[in-house]
Amino acid sequence: MGGQNPYLSQIEVPLPKTKYRVTFLPMNKTVEVDPDHLPQGYDGRPGSVLSIALANGILLDHSCGGVCACSTCHVYVKSGLDTCNQSSDDEDDMIQEAPGLEDCSRLGCQTVPDGSKDVVVEIPEWNRNLVKEAH
Ligand code: FES
């Protein structure tokens, strides 16, 4: 799956201009994101937390293919949330379906850090069985 949901408003999201790092919890895996080599061909918005996870072997669940039509990619942005794009009305509506909402809750497929700071992303406890790391 993948692509774009044609029913969603298409908003421009700024992409990072500098290298930065994302640490995924609880596996405590840190990856570097190079704006000149953003993950290509993965689900989610270009430069999204989901695409970065998938490109680095972190199989974050994403039932709708990263088009903001489910809430299975729910993550907590524990650090660097202020560097991420604002959530859209569509994301705000969809994330209401996710359990365990916190102020730092976002949909991984819609969340794009701008690279101005490192980011820490935690995958909620109840999704951890769905998360596998490639070896
Ligand atoms: S994968 Fe469905 S909303 Fe993100």
Task: Please give a handful of descriptors for the protein shown.
single chain, 135 residues, alpha+beta, Ubiquitin-like (UB roll), 5 strands, globular, binds FE2/S2 (inorganic) cluster
Give an overview of the whole structure.
The protein has 135 residues and is α+β, with helices and mostly antiparallel strands. The protein has one domain: Beta-grasp domain (Ubiquitin-like (UB roll)). Helices cover 10% and strands 18% of the residues. It is built from 2 helices and 5 strands; from the N terminus they run ββαβαββ. It is globular, with a radius of gyration of 13 Å. Bound molecules: FE2/S2 (inorganic) cluster (FES). FE2/S2 (inorganic) cluster is lined by residues 62-64, 66, 68-73, 94, 107, 109. FE2/S2 (inorganic) cluster (FES) is lined by residues 62-64, 66, 68-73, 94, 107, 109.
